[in-house]
Please model this.
Amino acid sequence: MPPDRPRPGTLQEVAVAVGVSAKTVSNAFSRPDQLSAALRERVLATARRLGYPGPNPLAAGLRRGRVGAIGVAYDNGLSYAFDDPVAVALLAGVASAAEPAGSGLLLVPGSSDPARRLAAVGDAVVDGLVVSSVGDDDPLLAAAIARGLPLVVVDQPRPDRLAALGAPGTPWVGVDDRAAAAAVAGHLLDLGHRRLAVVSFGMYRDPITPGLVDGRAQAAATYAVTRDRLAGYRDAARRAGLDWAGVPVFHGGDSTPGVGEAGADAVLATDPRPTALLCLSDRLAEGALRATARLGLRVPGDLSVAGFDDAATAAGLGLTTVRQPTREKGRAAGQALLDLLAGRPGPPPAALPAGLVVRTTTGPAPAS
Amino acid sequence: MPPDRPRPGTLQEVAVAVGVSAKTVSNAFSRPDQLSAALRERVLATARRLGYPGPNPLAAGLRRGRVGAIGVAYDNGLSYAFDDPVAVALLAGVASAAEPAGSGLLLVPGSSDPARRLAAVGDAVVDGLVVSSVGDDDPLLAAAIARGLPLVVVDQPRPDRLAALGAPGTPWVGVDDRAAAAAVAGHLLDLGHRRLAVVSFGMYRDPITPGLVDGRAQAAATYAVTRDRLAGYRDAARRAGLDWAGVPVFHGGDSTPGVGEAGADAVLATDPRPTALLCLSDRLAEGALRATARLGLRVPGDLSVAGFDDAATAAGLGLTTVRQPTREKGRAAGQALLDLLAGRPGPPPAALPAGLVVRTTTGPAPAS
DNA sequence: CCCGCCTTCTTCATCGATGAAGCACGCGAG
DNA sequence: CTCGCGTGCTTCATCGATGAAGAAGGCGGG
Model:
């Protein structure tokens, strides 16, 4: 049998027992300066005796208009977020801002059922929301905006899109993905590579069939991060006089090593074989490296591989990548939200710095 | 100037605008079957027009008596939790139970100020709590129990201690640390080692001066996990006829590589030099391995090193360790809590399996 | 033609607290 | 003696919703 949990007492009951008003009991807990020390002690003692657990935070939150927690909603659910070290680093950053402020961190559950996914945002008992990395047309963001709570967006959509969605001025935190992507592509082109290939994670929320995609599809991606990184690679390629249409771009689903491995297999099967692989994330690159090992390709002798993020694993792999301050992004987002909640202006949204990190997986193009 | 956020409308206001009762508007959102489709549409349209964000989850939560979120309180604050891969894996596990149930996960903030630390537990707007890995006498647990909410404890305190604290029958999730520790110590003894040393993380919540500690201090540890792992090592040592008093035990603070490195330095400075190092966690072992590299000791030629946890990094280091199902512990704890909330009985608390994983950091004792 | 039931909506009370304002008393100043 | 004011506690209204129970109309069955 489920053990019958005794209903916790209420302020009112304690008040009756002590013989004072409910408000006085409330003050005994929340505003000790509002009553004499003696009475306060008497109230607290009675509360203890009755097993009163203290003011119900839910009711207090309703009355006060704040509950002391901020929510984080992530494009993919929690299960995915905890699997991706970059997503965890972002959470760690948000936590590092929330914790000193005494604010809790509510992780909003995801769901494969769109209705439940949105309901979770609507039901989150929080003072404000951080929405991270969702597609331009994701109803999740619309639901978050509809809450009417202070809101901060990480990575995507971009500020222009937020304005179009009726939320202009929403603080945004991210990096200049396009410029950063151009930098890493430029690095490879400078090394003499002329046959590039790309392994990309999702471009749209909808399920896809992994495979090569053309420029039109790339430009139509609703994930701004994906779109911009691809555009950055293209910028660099064009600058070097390369025909972008000739660059195979593999479109996988999630940002996982498995997808990276499949993507590498796909683009390496094209003829002529690419000499440089641009991966949109380090996790994809990790999978790509697995594929090269399996195929017996030397890195960087036969093939250069670059990632994106500079995840914790990147250094160990010797991966050339783009470093972006993931944890700092989370911290900045959390802080911006807390600033909004406090009515402080907070600094204007600005892209954080990102930069190329050259390690050992990239080298000169092989002599053709 | 802080942009003046318009007060969101209320159910009541929508009701007046539509010309129906508040309850009908409520039903339009929460119980569509309770009113005609036509009226429902009219209500929703008006709500949209007025910019009504939908029923306030806080108020609904108060009335319904549940908010759809479970809280997780961790001994050390969030900042530490996110730094420790084992703690993250535990969170991932809890999330993997909460998410399919549509439940949010509230991470309770820690604080160096004891009062704020407790207040955070009292203020958490949740339906139930998971308290993870706190000391036997930690007021945090008392505060959690005082909330009167469904509660699940991970790792420590142990069930007997929970009963003593007035919370008998509280579901507990963990492993048999003592037996597991005995197994890894036994492994080293079987390899012929006779000069063991131990590097331990915290034994008490209070700040300590790191250094070697005697058996009396070990037995008095208020962290049950620490106490039991040390007891397990001792069990194995005694079984092999070793005098435990001769085994140097280093007591550091947190479970970090830095502490592990300092601990290894300390115990390796004792004479005669130990040939086997038992570390209470993989993170400590990671630091110990750093120390051995610096000291020019061959592992396992000169020194065997064992960890505990089988963290994600352990395989890469070739670390012999104890595998415990950390993520599964989190999942089980989350599920047990959800079962309590649903009034389901739930399986009785039972220790999850843990077992020795032998890799390459342990080998035969060097010929003396 | 009447009854009972279902659908659709309403009324009423309530979840558990706190902000704002008010009253009574005691005390020091004028 | 009286006024003014701070202290200590109370009263009142309110935060925004939802459960339980009830009332009006429509409809099929006997």
